[in-house]
Amino acid sequence: MTDTGVTLYLELIKKVIANEIYTDNAAPWWTGAEGAAVPEGGLPGTSAAHTLVGLEGLDNVQECVERVLADGIPGDLVETGVWRGGVTILMRAILKAHGVTDRRVWAADSFEGVPEAGEGSHPLDQEMALHNLNSMLSVSADAVRANFKAYDLLDEQVEFLEGWFKDTLPAAPISSIAVLRLDGDLYESTREALIPLYPKLSAGGFIIIDDYNMEPCRAAVHEYRDEHGITDEIRPVDNGGVFWRKTA
After folding, report:
1. 21 pLDDT exceeds 90?
2. Are residues 129 and 117 in contact, defined by beta-carbon separation less than 8 angstroms?
3. pLDDT of 56 higher than 60
4. Mind telling me which Pfam families this protein's record contains (predicted)?
């Protein structure tokens, strides 16, 4: 595929997964759930989109993946919290477009929504009560596989980690990571991804935090950075997300 072909293919993939081509007239997938606190303005997205990430966020994923490929940074591509699979579909499309066959894309999700924030949960997660949106957040693994298949991107380079992060991520058979994208929303979900996976992120690799605008996620990120003396510059992705490049 020529450089022009790569560019056109990936631009089209991003527009399709974000439902920028055939926009539907359905109500947003999020219509509000009693007892759930969400960011100001609610949550975007329509019933047909395969991702809630906007084009700025998808551009960021592409830039990070293509940078690690160009720089020879070792490792796989991982997203924790995949919803309908849009971002991981894009990751796989980038590898295919560039003819990369020695890296895998990992889709880690409970496929049941977010954990219920009960009395033993972190106070910020209890306040968010995001589990009240699980009827919308929950997408089955089979549905995500079907989405990959619709793009002709479901193959041996796509791996699914099904279950709660605390159960699946510590034992995940991932040796090294080049791009790690966290989209677990909550304090506990963010910590449960950072602790086992960040040490596997290669120097020169990127970590993207989708929900940095949410207080529970942001608190978990800064707590982890402080604990491990991480001073790499945090850079904005869009109105909600951030990323940084690991130096060591």
Report:
1. no
2. yes
3. yes
4. TylF
Location of structure tokens 């920028």:
20
pLDDT at 133: 61
The DSSP string of 39-98 is: -TT-----TT-S-S--HHHHHHHHHHHHHHHHHT---EEEEE--TTSHHHHHHHHHHHHT
Q: Any idea what DSSP says for residue 172?
A: -
How many Cβ atoms from other residues are within 10 Å of residue 149's Cβ? 12
Least confident piece of the model among 18-32, 73-87, 198-212: 18-32
Q: Is 88 exposed, middle or buried (0-12, 13-18, 19+ CB in 10 A)?
A: buried
Q: Is 0.90 topped by the overall pTM?
A: no
Dihedral sign (CA 245, 85, 40, 23): positive
Contacts of 101 (CB under 8 A, 6+ apart): 95, 157
Q: According to the model, what pLDDT value does residue 121 have?
A: 65
Per-residue confidence (pLDDT) for residue 10, from 0 to 100? 97
